[in-house]
UniProtKB/TrEMBL annotation:
NAD in keyword set: no
Domain Histone deacetylase, chain residue ranges per copy: 27-336
Necessary cofactors: Zn(2+)
GO biological process per UniProt: epigenetic regulation of gene expression
Protein name: Histone deacetylase superfamily
Gene Ontology molecular function, alphabetical: histone deacetylase activity; hydrolase activity; metal ion binding
Originating organism: Pseudogulbenkiania ferrooxidans 2002
Length: 343
């Protein structure tokens, strides 16, 4: 399986508000280094650099004004003489207005953020757009005949919706790639999200759509971030009704419960017969992940890959979360090797 990778991810190393304190993000550059090192040490396949794409490709799933905000936020923030990471500090909850974009950067940050885990630094935009380009390049490879590809994205993307960032995510790499698949002529695409956290952004982007199915296994939002989306009764709306499937699972879920839900999820996707599957590959379901609460072990990630291969469709794996740095390389690559061995 080929891997799409770029060093540009290093340009983004930010801080987050956590437990009431500003701390270095769990989502750090060493994550991608660890995964790339494992890709190379097992000889997974060729490692290629991303192609360049125009921002109009991102605007297929994000609003124009949001993409423009991401591109200009650091310049607007630093023009005020501020040197620390840009973080939001006010949000347009409930009856506050979000139709008018404030002129001040503090207002814009609040409008376009769902939490305080998405700081913007001098290098963030370059890292973010390159991350999306990795996913687009991987999808282009599928269109050119590869059965699978791995986009080693960093920052991740699945919490980012049409018009907001959150949970370390800015552009929704998986959704951008899935949309590119449809724009390239596919009739149907599915996104399978196996990150511990619900992919609220991807769900939101495709919620009203029948040509993109979203299926997610995750920690129950009653207990886990992102708290405000990911319940079982969210099944799509309008033309998209019946094309959104959530599998919220309790703290402590291990392979027995997880494998059963994943098998069901993959049967649902197979019945949909998508032209391709985009896998939002988070490995924070690992038992030692520092911010999550499932109990998967190293070899369970091989089983995830085998089960996904059972769908029988081409797959683009897009890296999302996973924070136990020592094991995330093994676990991410185990999914890919399991997929390859079983297909
Ligand atoms: C991003 B990805 C929970 C803190 C949650 C944000 C988590 C973002 C996860 N104690 N902080 O889905 O892995
Ligand atoms: Zn996660």
């Amino acid at each position: 399986m080929l891997t799409v990778y770029s060093q540009a991810h290093r340009l983004h190393h930010a801080t987050e508000l956590k437990d009431g304190l500003i701390k270095p993000c769990f989502e750090m550059p060493s994550r991608a280094d660890t995964i790339l090192a494992r890709v190379q040490s097992v000889g997974l396949g060729e490692v290629i650099v991303p192609r360049d794409y125009d921002t109009s490709r991102y605007a297929r799933v994000h609003s124009e004004r949001y993409v423009r905000f991401l591109e200009n936020a650091w310049a607007e923030w630093s023009a005020l003489g501020r040197t620390h990471d840009a973080l939001p500090l006010i949000w347009p909850v409930r009856d506050l207005r979000s139709d008018i974009e404030p002129e001040h950067i503090d207002g814009k940050l609040g409008l376009y953020a769902m939490d305080a885990g998405v700081a913007i630094t001098a290098g963030t935009w370059e890292a973010v757009r390159t991350s999306a380009n990795l996913a687009l390049t991987g999808m282009a490879k599928l269109e050119e005949g590869e059965h699978s590809a791995f986009a080693l994205c960093r920052p991740p993307g699945h919490h980012a919706a049409a018009e907001y960032m959150g949970g370390y995510c800015y552009l929704n790499n998986a959704a951008i790639a899935a949309q590119a698949c449809l724009d390239g002529g596919a009739k149907r695409v599915a996104v399978l999200d196996v990150d511990y956290h619900h992919g609220n952004g991807t769900q939101s982007i495709f919620y009203q759509r029948a040509d993109a199915m979203f299926v997610s296994l995750h920690g129950d939002p009653k207990q886990s971030y992102p708290y405000f989306l990911g319940h079982r009764d969210e099944q799509g709306a309008g033309a998209g009704l019946g094309f959104n499937h959530n599998y919220p699972l309790p703290h402590g879920t291990a392979w027995d419960g997880y494998g059963e839900a994943l098998a069901h999820a993959c049967r649902t996707i197979a019945a949909y017969a998508p032209d391709a599957v985009v896998v939002s590959l988070g490995v924070d379901t690992f038992k030692d992940d520092p911010i999550s609460h499932f109990q998967l072990d190293n070899e369970d990630f091989l089983r995830i890959g085998v089960t996904i291969a059972g769908i029988g469709r081409p797959a683009l794996f897009v890296m999302e979360g996973g924070y136990m740095v020592d094991d995330i390389g093994v676990n991410a690559v185990n999914v890919l090797r399991g997929f390859e061995a079983a297909r």
